Amino acid sequence: MNYIELIAPCHFGLESVLKREITDLGYEVSRVEDGKVTFLGDWEAVCIANVFLRTTERVLVKAGSFQAKTFDELFENTRAVPWEMYLPEDAKFWVAKANSVRSSLFSPSDIQSIIKKAIVERMKGKYHRSWFDETGASFPLRVTLMKDEVTLGIDTSGVSLHKRGYRKLTAKAPITETLAAALILLTPWKKDRILVDPFCGSGTFPIEAAMIAAGMAPGMNRTFLAQQWTNLIPESAWSSAFEEARENVDLSFRPDIQGYDIDPAVIRAARENAQNAGVDSLIHLQQRPVSALSHSGKYGFIITNPPYGERIEEKENLPSLYREIGEAFSRLDTWSKYLITAYDQAEQYLGMKAAKNRKIYNGMMKTYFYQFPGPKPPARGAKRNVQEA
Q1: Mean pLDDT of 356-381
Q2: What percent of the chain has pLDDT over 90?
Q3: Domain containing residue 280: CATH number
Q4: Residue 78's Cα: distance from chain center in Å?
Q5: Domain span at residue 66?
């Protein structure tokens, strides 16, 4: 079997979650770096990864990597990559994004231009043509330079994988689907445990949790750019991946997943998003302020993304809001609480010290994932009075 290397980018700080997802799919991880995981697979893996991975932003085919400190080195090394293995004669190809960090070459536009020229020169020699119409399938490239190491990736996903297709309506400052899924998977929550988001906004945490509970693949209801790549991936490989995703769905289990928000319009939007995702029967959404947070069950989970004051006038209200959150949390003393926020004084006003505080970059914004794990529930069959003593 001929293996290819695939690159899966993710949010900084959540590489371990993505690595576990990839190994659970049966693929060998070859490298873990800040913000991405590289693994080995075949062309079918492109389909499986796009359909099933919950926490990556896209899937790239690694075409090549090398050192380059000058534009001449960049040109020659790019031209040496066997592009004809990937790009058919009529391929439409361009450098969609170039990113340089601590490297000698730092101008994105110049990097993009040089790489495009180098690929064209390689293609001229292999296809014996002086001009390419580029009327065929699209092969956008994403290039990173890190300490002068160039990595050339071909994007198989197209539209970012965080766009599952269900979120037509969003609340202010929504959390992305991939980040929400990663944070859920970072906790010990399982589908038979209660999960509540008291600041659910457009419903992303409850919806992603319900999809996990139902075994619903995040990419099963969308399309991917590499479906055009009939020279590399047969249509049957995509059909097989989608069929496997459909067979894995089980809506018979009824989890206790709830989402609250103080804004009725936001709750209406969340309900529509849940319906679009096909999990509206698995989630209870309700207009409710955090001050009214309560649940009769024990050993549940709160996973939430409360406001953190993007505007100056909002920041003034944060101390009182976070005190209110802390009071609500204290009433659920057997529960585990997980909170992501950019507010660096959250612990002070919550009145709680987190067991763990993981820094996660949400785009360019530094956020904190505060983790307050609760007691473990009694083992099944154990005497409750002994466990609670």
Answers
A1: 90
A2: 90
A3: 3.40.50.150
A4: 29
A5: 4-155
